[in-house]
Write a structure and sequence with these properties.
2 domains; 13 strands; NDUFAF1; alpha+beta; seven-stranded antiparallel β-sheet; Jelly Rolls; about 350 residues; six-stranded antiparallel β-sheet
């Protein structure tokens, strides 16, 4: 009789526990951060910013966004996209993390790239952001829900972990993005051993937050690519277009391509330019080649002169002042440490 009673109590307890778990699960919510068309919320961020030659594009295909491009190992090795700064910070403290509904479509070697979520919680930290790697299953035609917990995010500068950074503040989400890279997140510049360069393609149907006790609903501020411009000082607003002209993506790509050709051939600029001129003349005619190269050299000359003017007048003085300030601060800290307790 006692054993029967104990069994009944155990069954009742199990039934209660099951109902409790089900009710807890039913109260969790997933909240999308963006509405279609998704690509209007993002901008590309490729390795051209550090001299690389990788290139990507974003495009909407019905109710999902396609992210594709070509990854190159030379002087970079990453492509990505990110939002502009949100109109106001998003409070994700009642959620567990970020969820991506995505699928990899280009090939079966998704494990030969590194996928990272990138998120920012402080606009004053410059190059420092929070990241976490995630896995993407090989193509199957199915959508996959990929969850990245907030408490797994690591503060990084580039791919290198910053061990002294404060924990991620999920109540102040300012920017969200995704990176596909050859670099792992590590304490050194560690790369994926069997990294596969070349073409990639990945689809995203939803980017949001999961594990919340409520849905954000319509309370999601739209990202803006104008806010950062509005917050700039008048000097930066004036100099911004000049920097874009001199250090544009097209200019950086051309320079990176030139450096690669120089490295492979061992020849100088005139030899490489001559080969390009001959190829242009052969395909489009001598007159077209003369006009194209004449215009290009004129633009490059203006950009070269303007670039050096900006470097000498602005970049080098500011860099010197920054280093001096850093040294003075370090000496001040040393002096504080030497004072008797």
């Amino acid at each position: 009789m006692g054993s029967i009673l104990a069994l009944l109590i155990l069954c009742a307890s199990a039934q209660y526990a099951t109902s409790l778990t089900a009710s807890t699960t039913s109260t969790t919510a997933t909240s999308a951060l963006f509405s279609p068309p998704l690509s209007s919320n993002f901008e590309r961020i490729d390795d051209v910013i550090m001299g690389g030659v990788s290139k990507s594009s974003l495009g909407d295909k019905g109710d999902y966004m396609n992210f594709q491009g070509i990854l190159r190992e030379q002087d970079g090795g990453f492509c990505g996209f990110r939002t502009g700064p949100f109109a106001r910070p998003i409070d994700g403290s009642s959620f567990d993390g970020i969820i991506l509904r995505a699928r990899f479509t280009s090939d079966s070697d998704s494990d030969k790239r590194t996928f990272k979520l990138t998120i920012r919680d402080d606009e004053t930290r410059g190059e420092f952001v929070f990241q976490q790697m995630f896995d993407v299953p090989p193509p199957s035609g199915e959508w996959h829900d990929i969850k990245i917990p907030f408490d797994s995010l690591k503060a990084v500068r580039g791919p290198i972990i910053n061990p002294n950074a404060k924990p991620f503040n999920s109540s102040n989400i300012l920017q969200v993005g995704v990176v596909i890279s050859k670099f792992k997140i590590s304490s050194t510049m560690e790369t994926l051993e069997d990294f596969r360069p070349g073409f990639f393609s990945m689809d995203f149907k939803e980017i949001g937050m999961y594990g919340g006790v409520r849905s954000l609903g319509g309370d999601v501020p739209a990202p803006s690519f104008n806010d950062s411009t509005q917050k700039k000082s008048p000097l930066l607003k004036v100099l911004g277009p000049l920097f874009k002209l001199v250090f544009s993506e097209t200019s950086r790509r051309r320079r990176a391509a030139y450096l690669q050709l120089k490295k492979r051939s061992g020849k100088g600029w005139f030899h490489i330019a001559g080969l390009g001129f001959k190829a242009r003349a052969s395909n489009y005619g001598l007159l077209n080649a003369m006009i194209t190269f004449g215009g290009r050299m004129s633009k490059d000359g203006i950009k070269f002169a303007l670039g050096w003017t900006l470097k000498v007048a602005i970049f080098y003085p500011f860099r010197t002042l920054f280093r001096l300030k850093k040294r003075l601060r370090a000496r001040g800290n040393e002096g504080e440490e030497r004072k008797p307790a």
